């Protein structure tokens, strides 16, 4: 990835650059998380996009932010760069522990042989249970899911309502800034 110095670019160069690269450059420069709407506003002002142009690119840009591995959304602070956030160390929980082996007495070895015979019998039972489970799972996968047209229309309406609400919030925030 090339370093993008958007402050030295012309409006034409900025318009040719992808929104995702502009967002990365803006966040890199700010060194702080930003809400999605604020990021859109900064890009809009920087490039000189109209409301319609931003609206037409909004869905793809949001998808790109979610898919691009460089960005991370934090509920408290908004969008930031993944490299800013610490990853919890879970090495202690997943690392195998090293056990020391002691020499075993002959009586202990005999007990182990009995235990192995018991385990062999349990493995056979497990294999039978597993085969039954796999057969049931295959039967479940064969079932088709049927959607009514009403269900699909309801989902479409909910999505449309969400977009309308987001647009109204964006417009309200924009009016507040003016």
UniProtKB/TrEMBL annotation:
Residues 110-121 have a biased composition (Acidic residues). NCBIfam families: RNAP_delt_lowGC. This is Probable DNA-directed RNA polymerase subunit delta. PROSITE patterns: HTH_HARE. It holds the Pfam family HARE-HTH. GO terms for molecular function: DNA-directed RNA polymerase activity. Residues 17-84 form the HTH HARE-type domain. The keyword Secreted does not apply. RNAP is composed of a core of 2 alpha, a beta and a beta' subunits. The core is associated with a delta subunit and one of several sigma factors. GO terms for biological process: DNA-templated transcription; regulation of DNA-templated transcription. It comes from Lysinibacillus mangiferihumi. Belongs to the RpoE family. Coiled coil: none annotated. Keywords: DNA-directed RNA polymerase, Nucleotidyltransferase, Transcription, Transferase. GO terms for cellular component: DNA-directed RNA polymerase complex. Participates in both the initiation and recycling phases of transcription. In the presence of the delta subunit, RNAP displays an increased specificity of transcription, a decreased affinity for nucleic acids, and an increased efficiency of RNA synthesis because of enhanced recycling.
